[in-house]
Amino acid sequence: MNWLTVALIVLGLFFLVVGSIGMLRLPDVFTRSHALSLTDSLGGLFVLGGLAVHHGFSASFFKILLVLGLVYLLNPVVAHATIRAAYRAGLRPGKGEQDDL
Amino acid sequence: MRVATALLLFALWLALSATLSPGHLVLGALLSGLIAWVNPVMKPQRRLSLLAALAYQPWLLGRILKSGLHVSRLILTPSLPIAPRLVRQRTGLSSDGELVALGNSITLTPGTVSIDVCPGEVLVHVIDEASADDLVSGRLERRIRGVFNTPEGPR
């Protein structure tokens, strides 16, 4: 593990932790989706980037890049589908929705 | 098109599974075929500019990083100073590829999430006014126009 790997993964963990805090603090499904994009876009990017640097140029390096590309293509689709479903089910932002969990 | 999609998925399967055992190959082939078959075919994007598409990635990454820090600050501020609202934004983009790029970019960027995307209009939820800037100012749309070589102006 060199310093760049450690720095990237720690940075990624920072965004994962902030995203989790956001998931708890933010009031409804819409605002919480913004915390989700923090963990997906930045947490995933830096943790996977750190792993890619750790592996150096090898088969694993390109596999990680491939996974990163898939994360960037697919995660927004899933987030969008979830939010659109919430919207179509009648949820609206800023109404202080009940949290039963 | 469906055959090309299936082949691409199968290549991806081979690259990620890293084994050539018959069971894996059969499962991969079945899944590739099934996924290509059930999904709608997207028209190929003929006017896509590869150079602009490559230049778009680091730009988007920069915007994601900037918004990420902004949203992180909002979340970590004790008073939670968010001002969420819906933005209905007119757009001149209309082809499948353009709308996928627009919707995905919006959702990837912390602080904005696309609720509905249709030709000519997107419905977006923003966490505060600063997060809406790239969208409302049309900066994001101009970038995507560049990638797809879409002529300027409303449809």
Structure at a glance:
With 101 residues, chain A is mostly helical. Chain A has 3 helices and no strands. The interface between A and B is large, with 36 and 36 residues.
Give Rg of chain B in angstroms: 19 Å
- What ranges of chain B have pLDDT less than 50 throughout 5 or more consecutive residues? none
Q: What summary fits the major beta sheet of chain A?
A: none
- Number of individual domains of chain B: 2
Mean pLDDT across every amino acid position of chain B: 87
Low-confidence stretches of chain A: none
Q: Any overview of this molecule?
A:
The complex is a heterodimer of chains A (101) and B (155). Chain A is mostly helical. Chain A has one domain. Chain A has helices at 3-25, 29-55, 59-88. The radius of gyration of chain A is 16 Å and the shape is elongated. With 155 residues, chain B is an alpha+beta fold. Chain B folds into two domains: 2-38, no CATH class; 50-148, no CATH class. Chain B has helices at 2-17, 22-38, 50-76, 96-108, 133-136, 139-148, and strands spanning 85-90, 112-118, 121-126. In chain B, a hairpin with a 2-residue loop joins strand 2 and strand 3 (121-126). Chain B is globular and about 55 Å long. The relative contact order of chain B is 0.15. Chain A binds chain B through residues 14-15, 18, 21-22, 25-26, 28, 30-31, 33-35, 37-38, 40-42, 45, 59, 62-63, 66-67, 72-73, 75-77, 79-80, 83-84, 87, 93-94, and chain B through 12, 15-16, 18, 61, 64-65, 68, 71-72, 75-76, 80, 82, 84-86, 103-117, 123, 125, 127, 131.
